[in-house]
């Protein structure tokens, strides 16, 4: 071993140390935050499917289910989205009081501190359900349970901090927010200029060691109403009062917003969404050191703390909202397409409508599958950093596509705003999800593969740590061990990828999963191809790969597809291999395989080392990109899942918030039930070439009762198709003086003529 190390490994070690780019403390902390999970299996090129299938399903306890059926439903009754964003520009006061009283802000806080102590899956289910009633309410509820003071205090706070603040957060005495984004630093949080200087000062009448803070934050959700601000800033110790370093690094602290120097700004209006959001400032705000989350020992550790805690927001809240949006789009768009007629037939019969409708349906199936699988990991105590990035990116992006498709199928119904428009505000809200908690452009191009390649790879992080070891001999020994394991792994992956690619995955490992078994084989094939190409890209490009953002994005897309498709297969298995749902699974698989093959072709076409690219093409894609996506048969069957009141439709769109009122959604649900229940009657009337139900009754084609059922269905459809209109003075204060728009313009014309 020493001969190998000294004669072969040592020169490689010296070369690699010379070319390895320097890694900042911020980059290292981000990489080391969180855990790896199924993403690590995918990176091996030979995933252990039994591990995935044995993962316990995420389930609710009786107490959590009772909360969904009780307080969550009660809250939904209080919410009227049109009034919230058009008239009130806020949640109604009764809703604010209710969420505090029922501890919606303390869902994740343990019971010992007065919270509900719910699981990540319960948190997800609550956000999901409220999202289908009101975006503003969902955001209001999810933020205190995601990245913020509560999450950070539970993980990193001192016992004294937990006992002081968590009960107040749980029962709503304090409303939290978290200040991370600065005007100078958005996704690049490490560039923030917000500062905290270690010094002595007077706090509550006594001199203590503390921090003098100056900051400017914006886009802070709940900021305008928060009483407790979690703040990220860079800490400095120029007088060396706590150590020998001048720059301590990013730190997080608790700031009661009533402290002198704290200034809460006016509200932002993000894409016309009216959840509380706004800027704040701090000017020479002094806090004692025990307001630093985790105390003095946590000075400078804020970035790692934030990256670890970010899994909640990225892995739970936004994916829950996105999955809810896709399911809501599937239910409403399917119902609308079923009841809406053009040219004498339901528009759901048009293939041009079936194609986007199938995309909505399959997206809803896949996003909820991925949401459940991610929650299962979180329930088990895993905090998967890479998977959380995948979820945030792809859940919000795919929701955007689903909502756009829904808008297209609804046409003018979804464009004209008003109380009866049940989808327009969701369309406006999409850019918010795309932007927050890390812009999707950054996540796709830098984070998913950039972080995944290092964290999830079996040996790369070990090698990097060995290369960075200040003790050269110890580093060489560790590198020698990891490097040769890596070499052996690469050869195994090469032969595995070659065999699976040339045989189209026919002999790849797969569990006995009935009709879905071939899908596992293909994922095993693509996992091997991905692992081999990733290894070769890292070998030939080294640290330069992180600057090849388009290549990194394509690798990230493949890793993301592998995870999302794994989740869809897991859902199919967990739900008992429902044959009626197989079309949705087929659509997901065909579309995902097409994306993987296209991305592999793009990588091979753009890899700078053309010799390596040629070899890889012969190994992993000898016949080119061959998958064309879902067939017309699959599209037709997939779209059909939401066109009838079946168990499959309920599985696809479970437990959406439904209030029996006169809202657009309620009207649609009633019309859908009436139309589908009278379908057989309507067919008899059409077969007799009769247009009026009364004529059909008179001619004995249908009974009087059946005719009245048809009339009720027709009236219900008419109410759904209606769109809102408004008096001029209801839309603009300009017309309130006259109350008559025609008179207003007549007087305006006379004034111009006179002048």
Keywords for this entry:
alpha+beta; seven-stranded mixed β-sheet; single chain; two-stranded antiparallel ribbon
Q: What can you tell me about this protein's structure?
A:
With 755 residues, the chain is α+β, with helices and mostly antiparallel strands. It contains 31 helices and 9 strands. It has helices spanning 2-19, 25-32, 38-44, 49-54, 62-78, 81-88, 93-101, 120-131, 135-142, 149-156, 159-170, 302-339, 351-379, 385-410, 412-415, 424-435, 440-455, 460-468, 472-502, 517-541, 549-574, 582-606, 610-620, 632-639, 647-652, 664-677, 679-687, 693-698, 704-721, 728-731, 741-754; strands at residues 176-179, 195-203, 206-221, 228-236, 247-256, 262-264, 277-288, 341-342, 345-346. Strands 1, 2, 3, 4, 5, 6 and 7 form a 7-stranded mixed β-sheet that branches. Strands 8-9 form a two-stranded antiparallel ribbon. A hairpin with a 2-residue loop joins strand 8 and strand 9 (345-346). Helix 17 (440-455) packs across helix 21 and helix 19 (472-502) crosses helix 20. It is globular and about 100 Å long. The model has no long low-confidence stretch (mean pLDDT 91).
The residue fraction in helices comes out at: 55-70%
Instruction: Give the overall silhouette.
Output: globular
Q: What is the number of E strands?
A: 9
Instruction: Tell me, rounded to a whole number, the average pLDDT.
Output: 91
* Class computed from helices, strands and strand pairing: alpha+beta
Count of alpha and pi helical runs: 31
Largest sheet: 7 strands, mixed
Radius of gyration: 29 Å
Q: What proportion of the residues form beta strands (DSSP E)?
A: 5-15%
Distance between the termini: 99 Å
Parts with pLDDT < 50 across at least 5 consecutive residues: none
